[in-house]
Amino acid sequence: MDLIKVAEEAFATGKEFPKFKSGDTVTIAYRIKEGNKERVQQYRGVVIKIAGHGTKKRFTVRKMSDNIGVERIFPIESPFIDSITVNKVGKVRRAKLYYLRNLTGKKARIKEKRVVSNKA
């Protein structure tokens, strides 16, 4: 049992990412290795699911690429994630947004939660 915890700590990146939830639009800077070269790819989409807890937490991001829905699962403790940026905070009523798979066009949009600023 101790060996498992040692292995988990070795792979833990220790990076701090912003809090986000289902319905938020995020941009993930993901490092990709192609041969001996390495580049950072920006993956922007809507978080449709967050599963697991602790170091095993993972989230699914859905984006539209040439009218085709592409979903990708990212482990939160992945060493290949450079940064996560929250672009929009979505206003949704459920944790798993699988219904977005069946929607197209304007129906697939998520309302944005307005942030109240106290600049009186």
What does this structure look like?
- The protein has one helix at about 1-10, and strands at about 25-35, 35-50, 60-65, 70-75, 80-90.
- By secondary structure, it is mainly beta.
- The chain has a single domain (about 15-105), classed as SH3 type barrels (Roll), CATH 2.30.30.790.
- A 5-stranded antiparallel beta sheet has the order 4-3-2-1-5, with no helix packed on it.
- The chain is globular.
- It starts with a helix and ends in a 32-residue tail after the last strand.
List keywords for this structure.
5 strands; mainly beta; 120 residues; globular; SH3 type barrels
Average pLDDT level: 87
Radius of gyration: 17 Å
The total beta strand count reads: 5
The topology string of helices and strands comes to: HEEEEE
Q: Which outline best applies?
A: globular
In the CATH scheme, the class would be: Mainly Beta
Major pleated sheet: 5 strands, antiparallel
Please give the domain count.
1
For the largest beta sheet, what order do the strands appear in spatially? 4-3-2-1-5
Task: State the distance separating the first and last CA atoms.
Answer: 56 Å
Provide the low-confidence segments as ranges.
Answer: none
Judged by helices, strands and strand pairing, the structural class is mainly beta
Summarize the model shown.
This protein is mainly β and 120 residues long.
Task: Write the SSE topology.
Elements: H1 2-11, E1 25-34, E2 37-51, E3 58-65, E4 68-75, E5 81-88
Antiparallel strand pairs: 1-2, 1-5, 2-3, 3-4
GO biological process, one term: translation
Family: Belongs to the bacterial ribosomal protein bL19 family.
Pfam families: Ribosomal_L19
